[in-house]
Amino acid sequence: MNHVAFIWNIAESLRGPFKPSEYGSVVLPFTVLRRLDAVLADTKAAVLQTAKAIGALPEMLQAVTLSEAAGHEFYNSSPFDLGKLVADPQDLRANLASYLAGFSPNVRDIFERFEFDKTLNKLSEKNKLFAVTEKFAQADFHPRTVSNIEMGLVFEELIRFANEKSNETAGDHYTPREVIALMVQLLFALDDDALSKSGVVRSIYDPTAGTGGMLSVAEEYLRRMNPAIQLSLYGQDYNDASYAICKADMVIKGQDVDNIALGDTLTEDAFDDKKFDYGLSNPPFGVDWKDQRAAVDDEHTKLGFNGRFGPGTPAVSDGAMLFLMHLVSKMRKPEDGGSRMAIVLNGSPLFSGGAGGGESNIRKWLLDNDLVEAIIGLPKDMFYNTGISTYIWILTNRKESGRKGRLQLIDGREMFTKLRKGLGSKRNELSLRNIETIVGLYAGFESGDHSKVFRNEDFLYRTITVERPLQLNWRATSERIDAVFQAKAVRKLNETDAEALRAVLNRLGTETVWKNRNEFQKDLKIAAKAEGLALPAPLLKTVTTELGEQDDTAETCVDAKGNPEPDVSLRDAENVPWDQDVDAYFAREVLPYAPHAWIDHAKTKEGAEIPFTRHFYRYIPPRSLEDIDRDLDEVMNELRAMLVEVER
Question: What pLDDT, on a 0 to 100 scale, did the predictor assign at position 173?
Fold first, then answer.
């Protein structure tokens, strides 16, 4: 029996009262309900008998006892099942409410997040409730007939149908299946031998679980590799509907229902005491974290490296790197086996922020701790809600010996197949061959046209501040005097003092040029005294600044200790590669062009950036003039031939 087709036929019967975009709100929770009904059928009598006998026990103890009687992490203590519900069409709506209330709290939560009550009310109002319930009651979803894996595939296919029918932006909930497949294969590519052994126990975590697609694909892949593997799936999401679907998917597959949590991962980590073997994530692209800022900054300040955000925080306009650090915080210690994580990010985390900034500090911390194993550039137009460039980061704290201290970049930007018809912003997809090629490059760990291996320190640098001496001349031209009177400190003068200051500046004359600051200020004070104007230090500084202009032939201005003062307008910064001596670099790259420059070592900052595209840039020489001339001649000949035809 094709269960997906059977269920979607039920959905199509809703046409009219329900829009296609609303089909998912009916068939997804009903599919969960029918599956749970079938799973609990064999122990239903035992649960009902137990429920009668434990009425005096505390509520928490009742729940534990009923779960034990059910043989699962959940139960239903209502006397109803779907068969009994459809046997009484008259009271179906009320009995359904009673049946749902009989579920354990962890399952009731799923239906509440689906807002299933609203859906049932609408079905009842439109006279569709009995027909839908009856059809679902006919479906045989018993575990003897449909295994957890098969039921999971059915539910995932329904999720995909629901997303395609929805008018919402699919990318908010749905990562393309082939992108997940690539991430999963990259995640496990170096662990095939270890994962295929008997008695293997592993955990997988997704902090931005959405509808659970990444967890599902990872589970399918591992179970194909090793059917006996003991696998625990964990996830968290802040969207009610996505959370309900993900949690339902886990229930259907026989996973622990309490391993899927609702909430904002950045502010309320539901698994703060847990570490995981593997992690997967596709956080939102370019979404700000203003709402989470207070909590994140508080954790960064109070906990430092004992929390998740010790290295720093990115610009508030994009929180993707917060999820990256969160994933790293979920790694097991290397002595406990370590972890490997995969996360999809846009291009910004590779290079945004200068040395000493949050993003740069995060990158440097990752590289200093040898946590980045590989970065894979994906083709554009891969996602449903954005056409921007995206990259998969592979993070681990258990690199093989040959990979230690190294970072691999893989260029998969041209490895794609065009879709016959676009889906939102999605125009391209990865074929099985594309995925195989990329995973092969990763496993091969060799440099070539599409794969390059670097030392971690190749991406580190120091930003030095280059100062040049302040050299000015002073001259009381009308333009410079006007600039003086535009200054804030001068605009505050009363009318009498302002007139006196103008007389002072006119007294200096337009022809005299000073190239020594001390001499200029000496003559300025003499002129002020002659006009009866006091020159307090702030006013003296303002006039000196506004009347001065840069002049390489002037004497250098010095401070009270005789040290040269820097010209802020000429201040520059240079990025010095990590393994180069700063002084040697300065002597070679700066001094030949600015012989009086110096480094302000107090301002030196350390940084990191990963210029991915630069390392795969291929120079394409311009066409020769001969080729261009030949093409022009061909076009001109065609035009002449056309004119001849017209004249005929």
Answer: 43
